Structure formats: structure tokens, C-alpha cells
Amino acid sequence: MKIIIIVFVIIVSSLIIGCGAKHTTEKRYGISFCDSNVLSNVRRSTGAESINGYLTTYTDSVEHVMATIDILNPENYDELVQNNKLTRSIADSIIKSIGYNDIVDSLIINYTDKATLLTFFTEKYTSYSYGTKYIYDIRSIFFKDIEKWASEIQSLIKMNQLERIHLIADSLSSIYSYRYFLFNVIVGVKMRENPRDLTEPKEMMLKEISRRPLNRQIYFYLGYICFLQLQYDESAKYFDKLLRFDPKNIIANYYRGYIYAYAKDYKSAMKQFLLAKESGSDIADKAIEDLHKAGY
């Protein structure tokens, strides 16, 4: 569903700028656009002075990520904000520029038109909102090819055909919009190539999460790496972050269950294993059986 809110604000004199401003404690995170070329095309096509954005989180039963994009002084503002086809096209481009690996659950695009004459200025503001279904429908169109590659690479990982994966990654490396996807692929391969020394992939992921702090796949990798390194407290921290966004994640629930078991919190362990099973996997069946035998 798309919601349109139009607000016209006229401030008589620049001398009163800032009066009545409200302080917000909302934590904002930067957006690391996967395909900045797409964003540059949007800026050129709209004639906008600037396009900036940030991420925030909101919670209902789970935690969600919202992207807010501010488009300042686009040309022909009035025509643009009344053209549903054009504003949808801009939204689609922004979803594409955010990329395959960084999931957002809602998107708000603010169009602002500011004009100044001496000490007087006017500001016109229009906001478009796009929900989860719209975003996921567009993602399924844009990222169909990446999904196919992800499925093929997953099959090759199971067969331990790592050289073949390297060849695929090399062949796709010239596609700018694939760079975050390929980053995760390479980290996964490095973990397979040298499972006894996970220092390099862990450092790669820690560096990446500083730029993309709400990325669920990075939480998963760090949780898994720390688990293999027997750093269970650190592992739990990353898996818990992932589960706040994706409480039905089978693998995260499975490993989180074992972390509870190692801490002798068998009741919590059983809860996590059952969540993994409820999501349609038999991966935790043996652990559930063992806990049942132990009286849990």
C-alpha cells in the first residue's frame, strides 16, 4: 500500500528558523547503497539538488528496518509529486540501489521543494510510503538473477566445489550491483577453505558491519564464526540480533539452542530447538529428542 501525505509549509522570515523544533532520540544509521549508479541516475533524471538517506528501526512483534530517502529540490516538483507512475519508478530504483543483501521492510521517500527570496522562503513537502509487500514484490523482480546464482552457489558449497564458486564470482565481479552479494560468497568460501583459522573472514565481517550495521546476513556470519571459535557469548549476541529481525530463522535458532545448552539453560535451549522445528526443519530433531530423554 502506498500512502501520500502532502504538507505545505510557508515560513515568513528566516529570523524565526528553528523555533519550535522538536528533539528526537531516534537512532539513525547510514545507508550503504549497493548500486550508487542507479541512485545517480535518479538524481540526474529528476534534476534533484541532492538525494540522501538513512535507516531506522521500529518494532511491532519483531524488529523492522525502515529506509527514509530525502530528495531535495527536484525539477518540476509539482508535476513530479502528482505523477504516480514516475514516483513509483523512483521508488523502484531506490529499492534496487539498496541492493539484494540489505533488507528493508518499509520505505519513505520525502520530496522537498525549497525556494528563498531575501529573508523569506517557502517549503513544499510530499512524502510517499511503501510497505513490505510492495518492496518484496519489486525485490523479486530485480533480484531474480541473484537468487538463481545464490541457489547454484549453495549447491556448490554443499558439494565443496570451491574452485567453481571462485570462477562464478570472478565472472560476476564486473556487475557493480552484485558486489555485496559476492562479498558474502567470498567470505563463505574462505570459511570452507580454512575452517581452522577464521580470523580473516571474521575481520572482513566486522569491518563490513561497521558500514552496514543492520545487515542480517552479517549477523548470521558473525554468530556462526564466533560459535565455531567457541566464543559463545559473542555468538549469542549476533544470533540474538538476527533473531530480533527474523525470529523464525532456522539456523540461528538451532545454534542459539546449543549455546543455551552449553550454558546448562536446557529450558531455553528446548525453546530455541522447537522454534527451529516449527519453521519446517528437522535439523534440531536429535537435540530435541536428547532433551526429552533428559526430562525437558
Question: What's the helix and strand layout?
Answer:
Elements: E1 2-11, E2 29-30, H1 36-46, E3 50-59, E4 63-72, H2 77-81, H3 84-98, E5 106-117, E6 120-130, H4 132-142, H5 144-158, H6 162-172, H7 179-193, H8 199-211, H9 216-228, H10 232-245, H11 250-262, H12 266-278, H13 285-293
Parallel strand pairs: 4-5
Antiparallel strand pairs: 1-6, 2-3, 3-4, 5-6
Provide a quick synopsis of the model:
This protein is of the alpha+beta class. The chain has 13 helices and six strands.
Polypeptide structure, described:
With 296 residues, this protein is an alpha+beta fold. The protein folds into three domains: 2-14 and 21-141, no CATH class; 155-193, no CATH class; 194-296, Serine Threonine Protein Phosphatase 5, Tetratricopeptide repeat, CATH 1.25.40. The chain has helices at 36-46, 77-81, 84-98, 132-142, 144-158, 162-172, 179-193, 199-211, 216-228, 232-245, 250-262, 266-278, 285-293; strands at 2-11, 29-30, 50-59, 63-72, 106-117, 120-130. Strands 1-6-5-4-3-2 form a six-stranded mixed β-sheet. A hairpin with a 3-residue loop joins strand 3 and strand 4 (63-72). Helix 7 runs antiparallel to helix 8 (199-211), helix 9 packs antiparallel against helix 10 (232-245) and helix 11 packs antiparallel against helix 12 (266-278). The chain starts with a strand and ends with a helix.
